[in-house]
Amino acid sequence: MPNPLLEVNGLKKYFDIRGGVFGRKVGDVKAVDDISFTVMEGEILGIVGESGCGKSTAGKAILRLIEPTAGTVRFEDKDLTELNAEEMRKLRHNMQIIFQDPYASLNPRHTVEKIISEPLKVHGMTSAAERKKRVQELLETVGLSAYQASRYPHQFSGGQRQRIGIARALANNPKLIICDEPVSALDVSVQSQILNLMEELRDKFQLTYVFIAHDLSVVKHISDRVGVMYLGRMVELTTKEKLYEEPKHPYTQALLSAVPEPDPDVVKERVILQGDVPSPENPPAGCAFHTRCPMAMDICKELRPQFEEIEDNHFVACHLYGDAQ
Amino acid sequence: MSDQETVLEMNDLHTHFFTDSGEIPAVDGVSLRVNKGEVVGIVGESGCGKSVASLSIMQLVPSPPGRIVDGDIQFKGENLATATEKRMRKIRGNEISMIFQEPMTSLDPLFTIGNQMEEAIRIHQKISKKEARTKAADMLKQVGIPRAEAILDEHPHQLSGGMRQRVMIAMAMSCDPELLIADEPTTALDVTIQAQILDLMRKLNKENDTAILLITHDLGVVAEICDRVVVMYAGQVVEEGTAREILKDPKHPYSQGLIRSLPKLREREQKLYSIPGTVPKPKMGRVGCRFADRCPFAFDRCYEETPSLIQLNNQRTSRCFLYDKEAQEDAESPVGS
Ligand SMILES: Nc1ncnc2c1ncn2[C@@H]1O[C@H](COP(=O)(O)OP(=O)(O)OP(=O)(O)O)[C@@H](O)[C@H]1O
Ligand SMILES: Nc1ncnc2c1ncn2[C@@H]1O[C@H](COP(=O)(O)OP(=O)(O)OP(=O)(O)O)[C@@H](O)[C@H]1O
Ligand code: SF4
Ligand code: SF4
Ligand SMILES: [Mg+2]
Ligand SMILES: [Mg+2]
């Protein structure tokens, strides 16, 4: 039985909205509003949900790249939210992030060599020769060539740039990598190369990934378990088999039914959602999905459903399945 | 199908860019046809010339450095490749409307969404400002924009990228064009919103007989909405057929690779297929098949001669020597599909 590597509990991140002449706080965006989940060692946990539902914010808050508003994040035996800056810095090499945009996340004025060796230096590899060797090793690991180390990011294609981002993330042998839409900006043919690479690396280095994406077939391909977010909340979390074969939450059902499939023979019963997409500044009371949910009941407008394990390893936040029904 | 009325016919179009580093044949001899009431998809890897081909139809290729150097574009008996700017201004947004890949460039930052939509609607319909506003709000609601009335009074920068994209879609659809060109219209949107937009496009197509030329990376979208598909590679058409034929039984090795690379929602697979190598940079005077360096079936002839489009049946073409001899017989796919 593998051990939990990451335990997120009641994580919240609210951004202040300021307005008026004095820039006073006039409200907040509940970008992440109380989410909890556990990731096992060596596991790939996928997170999906529509644009703006808080996936990236959750990823950053877990690593404390932005400070969480509330909640705890346990990594191995430490609660990250209790560490001071120095302790956090020391742990950081164990936890990396790969960003969505392979163009924006690499400094255009630095060579690939510098980009990848920077984190090595920060974490105490003082010998320049040693760093050079490690950079070459990393480039080869991600399928690039050692001679490319002296080039600049703009001299690479999108897929190659994403490989550089991966090499940088791997530099200090991390245990956990948060992958924020690592293939969304890429062509299908390049996308499949990167997905294969990430799977190989996981097997080779026993990595653990939190894999954020909005493409449901990509997430299905790579993940062991999948969590679905809606408006800052986790609404369903289970193994990928269960999620894709018997989704429970009405939002997950709508999401899956809306995915266009490249097979003209698949006939789908499509759930077209009605109603406005609500704003996280002013989320609906009760179940945040009730304004669009085809199954909404009276209770849904008033009471926020608990995120509960309704079957073995199947968590859902919906009154259809709780005790309240 | 020659009995159908052709709306758009592109014949051997060449659009090149003249840059400091030489002449780039971004669109290198593309022919395609869109019939009335038909939805035709263009798919292909990033940089293969999809956007430049569609911008050429509207004469919107940035010039310099770009220029149509050869070929013609027939739209209802008129060659758009040589039409005057004055004439084009009449056609754009009226008979042909386009949804651009980058929506910010096509909305005016100085005017409210309402101003811009009302103006576009009133060019084509003799209705009052008030009626135009009602119609604009209605279109915004149809593309799933919340607070439609309030959004009409906002400026483009106050909207998210996905919302701007939907405003563009609403505008393009509201003027009831004969041909709608949509360049990656739903790429930036969520699947639930995407489903709404595709639904809307299908409705426009069915009810008004609007012809649609849809450019997309997403083969799922192709399966949803396209009748016919044109696959492009490195500035050329490499395969053409019905959506079903291309998705179920691709003939060209590039199309086969593209379809095999997709992660499937319904199947379990261990490792994804990926096409080795990368797309060649466009350059002049190339000999041989452009896909040869990445093709698992390449043989000597592929490097020595340049394949032309081979007719497989009345709707189906493939630019590949593998079909040269088989074209007369019943063509069979090189990979058991
Ligand atoms: N620094 C910030 N200040 C204020 N609001 C923010 C900030 N960062 C994010 N938000 C808001 O928080 C919400 C969640 O944003 P987030 O980037 O986490 O979404 P996401 O799920 O990653 O979306 P996408 O799929 O588009 O990347 C959004 O409403 C966003 O506008
Ligand atoms: N203004 C320009 N100057 C020089 N070359 C250009 C210019 N615009 C486009 N090109 C070149 O033309 C080719 C085709 O570009 P195009 O934008 O049509 O590709 P695309 O198929 O639409 O790709 P994507 O899927 O990424 O949108 C590319 O190789 C590109 O580099
Ligand atoms: S709690 Fe109610 S509104 Fe929310 S998803 Fe379940 S049924 Fe729908
Ligand atoms: S012509 Fe040759 S190289 Fe080109 S696709 Fe056909 S088999 Fe492959
Ligand atoms: Mg994000
Ligand atoms: Mg394009």
Describe the protein's architecture and organization.
The complex is a heterodimer of chains A (325) and B (337). With 325 residues, chain A is of the alpha/beta class. Chain A has a single domain, classed as Rossmann fold. Chain A is 30% helix and 25% strand. Chain A contains ten helices and twelve strands. Chain A has helices spanning 55-62, 85-91, 112-122, 128-141, 158-170, 188-205, 216-222, 240-245, 250-258, 298-302; strands spanning 4-19, 24-40, 44-48, 70-75, 78-79, 95-98, 176-180, 208-212, 225-230, 233-239, 308-311, 314-316. An eight-stranded mixed β-sheet of chain A has the order 6-7-8-3-9-10-12-11, with helices on both faces. Chain A has a four-stranded antiparallel β-sheet with strand order 2-1-4-5. In chain A, β7 (176-180), α6 (188-205) and β8 (208-212) form a beta-alpha-beta unit. Chain A starts with a strand and ends in a 9-residue tail after the last strand. The model of chain A has no long low-confidence stretch (mean pLDDT 88). By secondary structure, chain B is α/β, with parallel strands linked by helices. Chain B has two domains: 6-95 and 177-278, P-loop containing nucleotide triphosphate hydrolases (Rossmann fold); 110-174, no CATH class. Chain B has helices at 50-57, 85-91, 113-124, 129-142, 148-152, 161-174, 191-208, 219-225, 243-248, 253-260, 300-304; strands at residues 6-19, 22-35, 39-43, 66-75, 78-79, 96-99, 179-183, 211-215, 228-233, 236-242, 310-313, 316-318. Chain B has an eight-stranded mixed β-sheet, sandwiched between helices. A four-stranded antiparallel β-sheet of chain B has the order 2-1-4-5. In chain B, a hairpin with a 2-residue loop joins β11 (310-313) and β12. The radius of gyration of chain B is 21 Å and the shape is globular. Chain B starts with 5 loop residues before the first strand and ends in a 19-residue tail after the last strand. One magnesium ion binds next to α1 of chain A.
